[in-house]
Design goal:
The structure holds 2 protein chains of 2 kinds.
Chain A lengths: L9 E5 L4 H13 L2 E6 L7 E2 L2 E4 L2 H8 L3 E4 L3 H13 L4 E4 L6 H14 L2 E3 L5 E4 L3 E4 L8 E8 L3 H12 L4 E6 L10 H10 L5 E7 L4 H12 L4 E6 L23 H10 L3 E2 L6 H11 L1
Parallel strand pairs in A: 1-2, 1-5, 2-4, 5-6, 6-7, 10-11, 10-12, 12-13, 13-14
Antiparallel strand pairs in A: 3-4, 8-9, 8-11
Helix pairs in contact in A: 3-4, 6-7, 7-8
Chain B lengths: L4 H10 L7 E4 L2 H11 L3 E5 L12 E4 L2 H11 L3 E2 L2 E2 L3 E5 L3 E12 L4 E7 L6 H7 L5 E4 L8 H9 L5 H20 L2 E12 L4 E3 L3 E4 L8 H4 L7 H9 L2 E4 L4 E5 L2 H13 L6 E4 L6 H12 L6 E8 L4 H14 L6 E7 L2 H10 L4 E2 L2 H14 L3
Parallel strand pairs in B: 14-16, 16-17, 17-18
Antiparallel strand pairs in B: 1-6, 2-3, 2-6, 4-5, 7-8, 7-10, 8-9, 10-11, 10-12, 13-15
Classes of the chains: A alpha/beta, B alpha+beta.
Chain lengths: 291, 378
């Protein structure tokens, strides 16, 4: 098992004919992901990296029975791409694109909830269930199949952590980047709920960062609802208030969203907190052993 | 992006929100001229991107044009929380009867905009939220529907008992919603929204923060960018995220989360980061070169640490950028490089030819750079 993506996932790549789209479509195919179609308006009837391209997601889904899409679409067109995928009946959209206006993401979120579907991202590296399926841009070789679930607001910091887990012999069930924007489709609580229900996942690593209150809410949720061990890390302890730290969502504003508050919330909830990334794998190993 | 009060008031005026007449001045003489044109007592207000101007002495009254000139000469050039005042807003003084608060902000938790109204205006709304939360009335807005008329009426009902004035406030709430939504704000705030002694409702102050992700579709708002340092501009134009800090270890990292974690790790091992810098996903040697120009022009930097986890970012691109930077810029600070991931071997080859070495572990890299910074040798 794993969460959200596996051998049965059939993927449409939106924006497959673009530079990033074609590069990552190929990388996903090489990993064994069932990339069944591409969608780029005006390029229907052609082929890209051996995959048939359609003008619309609707046609792509009708012809191939895809259930998931991944959007490598420039920011100005990305919200439209996500709406198109949802309206075509796609259940899971992974939106890699960074820089979508927040107003657009709020509207997508409203639609997502109304339809009962899911978006991962935006501004995220995607999701991978090692050995089964990769939908996103993460370097595949650092992952290995196993029992640790990873959920993170970051991209490269997640790679750093996954790399250390793999090196320590701790494989992963699923690793998901949920995105660095202020409004995202799937949050920590959603991921934790899925990991808790997944028999393969034995422990969860949660990588948070400054800004918003998702970590605090996750801490409360873990305390009351989650039975599996969780290891937490929060980036941005040295970040000054009022400054956006790269990610649109990584900002301490009005005194809320500090790393200190989040770490304290984790500790209050009995979550093992790593002070530095290199402690994470040791903490996970210890918890899996005692679980 | 934050904009000044005078710019926010320009936007308010476009949408029909009443604001006191006034103009911006950059010299005392100009302030005097504006006051004379207004023909009434004025308030001279510092235009800086921080709160607490009044307390810091950045807002002064001028009964006559000469007094306005004097007030401007005191405010212009003063420092408020480290920022130098370069502009003042000269605006008609208003006889205030009551002050209230009206604002819209993105509620990250609810994933919707939220309107807030409070009869406790003129003070920091976060302070009101902490001390007397019962005085703040909230109304979430469905982003697919916009602010509905009944919601405007509800907000107005919390701010005034007079039915005529409630109509004025509801109309302002509707216009403020349009400002927020149509210009892609992350925050649009009137604090205080005042009732004048002659029974008018006016936005005495205006605060707008714009969504950086939406500026591409608002070139008129992008043109309002002010007070950006040379380094911030260089970084933005090259697609880098840069935040200057006060420490001595310059950082150049790919990815925002890893960049924050790198700063934290430097602190963990006893150092202080000089900056946050994320070179972004698709790095090119040019980006690395610009990053080095920015970092190395900070006189506080004693050593530079590169932390690269190659994914989309190719390590060889970064290595080429570093080697180029060392040729083109007079880099005095020693450099420590940590890189791993995509095209790592190629990168080591490029660095090796320039007599540079790289470590693969983040902790080891941080310890090395701290040691070197302390010893002051490369």
């Amino acid at each position: 098992m794993s969460i959200l993506v596996d051998e049965k996932t059939r993927v449409i790549v939106q924006g497959i004919t673009g530079r990033d789209g074609s590069f990552h479509a190929k990388a996903m195919l090489d990993y064994g992901t069932k990339v069944v179609a591409g969608a780029t308006p005006g390029k229907g009837g052609t082929e890209c990296v051996g995959v048939p391209v359609f003008d619309s997601v609707h046609e792509a889904r009708e012809s191939t029975g895809a259930n998931t899409s991944v959007a490598y679409v420039p920011a100005a067109f990305a919200a439209d791409a996500v709406h198109e995928a949802f309206d075509a009946g796609i259940e899971l959209v992974v939106c890699i694109t960074e820089g979508i206006p927040t107003s657009e993401v709020m509207r997508i979120y409203g639609k997502m909830k109304a339809l009962g579907v899911r978006m991962i991202g935006p501004n995220c590296p995607g999701i991978i269930s090692p050995g089964k399926c990769k939908v996103g841009i993460m370097p595949a070789h650092i992952h290995s199949p196993g029992n640790v679930g990873v959920v993170s607001r970051s991209g490269t910091l997640t790679y750093e952590v996954v790399n250390q887990l793999t090196a320590a012999g701790l494989g992963q069930s699923t690793c998901m980047g949920i995105g660095g924007d202020p409004i995202i489709g799937t949050n920590f609580i959603d991921a934790l709920t899925l990991f808790d229900a997944d028999p393969e996942t034995k422990a969860v690593v949660l990588i948070g960062e400054i800004g918003g209150t998702d970590e605090e809410e996750a801490a409360e949720f873990i305390k009351s609802e989650i039975s599996k061990p969780v290891v937490g890390f929060v980036a941005g302890q040295t970040a000054p208030p009022g400054k956006r730290m790269g990610h649109a969502g990584a900002i301490v504003s009005g005194g809320t969203g500090t790393a200190k508050e989040k770490i304290e919330a984790f500790k209050r909830a009995g979550i093992a907190v790593a002070d530095i990334p290199s402690q994470i794998s040791t903490l996970v190993a210890g918890l899996i052993k005692t679980a | 992006m934050n904009i000044h009060e005078y710019q926010a008031k320009e936007i308010f005026a476009r949408y029909g929100i009443p604001v006191p007449p006034g103009r911006v001045a950059t010299s005392p003489a100009e302030a005097k001229k504006i006051a004379a044109e207004l023909g009434k007592p004025v308030v001279v207000k510092a235009q800086v991107h921080v709160g607490g101007r009044g307390k810091a002495g950045g807002i002064k009254f001028g009964a006559t044009p000469s007094e306005a000139e004097k007030a401007a000469s005191q405010v212009l050039g003063m420092k408020i929380k480290g920022l130098t005042v370069g502009k003042v807003l000269v605006t008609t003084s208003i006889d205030v009867a009551t002050e209230s608060y009206l604002g819209v902000v993105v509620d990250r938790r609810a994933k919707k905009p939220v309107f807030m109204a409070s009869p406790a205006g003129g003070v920091d709304i976060e302070e009101v939220a902490r001390t007397t939360p019962e005085k703040i009335f909230k109304m979430h807005v469905d982003p697919c529907m916009g602010l509905l008329p009944y919601q405007s009426r509800f907000l107005a009902s919390k701010l005034d008992q007079d039915s005529k004035l409630r109509g004025q406030i509801a109309s302002i709430a509707h216009k403020l919603w349009r400002v927020f939504w149509e210009t892609d704000c992350s925050l649009a705030e009137i604090n205080p929204l005042v009732k004048t002694k002659d029974g008018q409702i006016i936005a005495l102050d205006a605060k707008i923060n714009l969504d950086d992700n939406a500026l591409d579709r608002h070139p008129d708002l992008e043109a309002m960018r002010e007070g950006e340092s040379e380094h911030d501009r260089m970084a933005r134009e090259m697609g880098l995220s840069y935040v200057k800090l006060e420490g001595s270890i310059g950082c150049c990292v790919n990815g925002a989360g890893l960049a924050m974690a790198t700063m934290d790790l430097i602190k963990h091992y006893g150092g202080e980061p000089a900056n946050f810098l994320d070179i972004g996903g698709s790095s090119s040697p040019d980006k690395v070169l610009t990053a080095m120009r920015i970092i190395c022009s900070d006189p506080g930097v004693k050593a530079v640490f590169f932390n690269i986890f190659g994914g989309i970012t190719r390590c060889d691109d970064v290595a080429t950028g570093i080697v180029t930077a060392l040729k083109e810029i007079d880099v005095k600070a020693p450099i420590v490089i940590r890189l791993t991931g995509t095209n790592e071997e190629k990168a080591r080859e490029i660095l090796g030819k320039a007599n540079l070495r790289a470590t693969t572990l983040m902790d080891e890299g941080v310890r090395q750079v701290l040691k070197i910074a302390q010893e002051g040798v490369s």
